[in-house]
Amino acid sequence: MLNRIFNIVMCLLVVLMPGICAQAADGAGTKTPALSRDQRMGWWRDARFGMFIHWGLYAIPAGQWHEQKIKGVGEWIMNNAHIPVSEYEQLAGQFNPVKFDADRWVEIAKNAGMKYIVITSKHHDGFCLWDSKVSKYDVIDATPFGRDILAELSRACKAGGIRLCFYHSIMDWHHPDAQAPFYPRYNDTNRSNPNFARYVEKYMKPQLKELITNYGPLGVMWFDGEWIREWTGELGWQTYNYVLSLQPDIIVNNRVGKGRKGMQGLDKAGKFAGDFGTPEQQIPPAGLGGIDWETCMTMNDTWGYKSYDNNFKSSEELIRKLVDIAGKGGNFLLNVGPTAEGLIPQPSVERLTAMGKWMKLNSESIYGTTASPIGKPGWGRCTAKANRLYLHVFDWPTDGKLVVADLNSKVKGAYLLADKSRTALAVQRDSNAVTVAVPLKPTDEIDTVVVLKIQD
Ligand code: FHN
């Protein structure tokens, strides 16, 4: 009997522990998460490659307002074209993406080798892609479409084995409590009634709860729009803890905090806010030693769809960026901006297909790898995992000799990753360099991967 009582008490403790631990305060007066960062970050560090999706009402004007091409990124059109709230919100009445197919989006991401999707639950324009109980400005209440996009994507991600994550903008150009009086580009003064504390308590937090409890479990809560004056480091830490109290194993990006000082993701007090840094449209030249990070990047020059932006990076550039990032220990969050009909634009699909083709043969050299232990070799990049070094050769040697400088570990063998027969390549050691005898032609012009087996 005593044993049974003991067991019941222990079981209750295990269930309640995360909540209890989440309350523990650290020296800076903030809370310590129930699970360690390493425990929470495991899947994310392995994944290395994810899809960013910027989708909302801005896909309808697609970069044009009253027949004028509007400069800047598509999802900022409300701000950049000075569109008043009362005018912009009428776009909701036209939002009817009948070609939206969540399974197809998941399929496109999976085929590219991506392991997670981060979609804009709400961007700066305030429009919500789910059925929010605290807003009428959402896909169910305000559009003829009337389908819960996040619910459909959540189901498709679960079925497809992809982690679903939400981007959520702290800044909100639509909510009357959140419209900044000093930033009047889109304000209808008769509508705005700024009370940011009320916005946080009565709107933002309830929405985060809906997103995490009704559409989760989520991989990442990815905040943005934290630079506004009203957002403080303290609010950042409170929100971080709140999100973790709702889902103890969730990951939160640095933009929950204040100040993305450079790429380090430090808050004003110099303390790292959130779980990973978010360099935007850039790859740190030497990674961000000691900090988890993820480069987010557009394929063309916009996040939200712009019908006339055709300045797409090539597949070669994108594959090499993925490899460059993995070789520096980071993740790559690559953006697509679906159309108002609900389609991922064809140029994006083509590039993702090419990346997937490369990944099908070479993903072992990306997933679960860590940064290069030999820096940036002249011929390409390097990733590492267990007792393997993956040499990503961008510039294939014309003399059949691949020289790996500054390598002191004992090399037990070498082969081409794409060669299923694992034919051994001859390796010769020469003081602290190793030379691998490679075929005269690469198997892949973009990146042929040579594997070095290293002594444990
Ligand atoms: O203003 C946004 C922008 O629209 C886009 O969402 C990017 C993605 O990281 N973040 C913001 C700027 O940092």
Explain what this protein looks like in three dimensions.
The chain is of the alpha/beta class and 456 residues long. The protein folds into two domains: 45-365, TIM Barrel; 380-454, Immunoglobulin-like. The protein is built from ten helices and 16 strands. It has helices at residues 2-22, 37-47, 77-80, 85-88, 102-112, 149-160, 196-215, 233-246, 315-327, 346-362; strands at 49-53, 64-65, 68-69, 116-122, 163-169, 220-224, 251-252, 294-297, 331-336, 380-385, 388-393, 401-404, 411-416, 427-430, 433-437, 448-454. The longest helix is centred in the first third of the chain and has 21 residues, at 2-22. The chain binds ligand FHN. Residues 73, 75-76, 224, 280, 296, 303 line the site of ligand FHN. Ligand FHN binds at residues 73, 75-76, 224, 280, 296, 303.
Write the layout of secondary structure elements.
Blueprint: H1 2-22, H2 37-47, E1 49-53, E2 64-65, E3 68-69, H3 77-80, H4 85-88, H5 102-112, E4 116-122, H6 149-160, E5 163-169, H7 196-215, E6 220-224, H8 233-246, E7 251-252, E8 294-297, H9 315-327, E9 331-336, H10 346-362, E10 380-385, E11 388-393, E12 401-404, E13 411-416, E14 427-430, E15 433-437, E16 448-454
Parallel strand pairs: 1-4, 1-9, 4-5, 5-6, 6-7, 8-9
Antiparallel strand pairs: 2-3, 10-11, 11-16, 12-15, 13-16, 14-15
Helix pairs in contact: 5-6, 5-10, 7-8, 9-10
Ligand FHN binds next to loops.
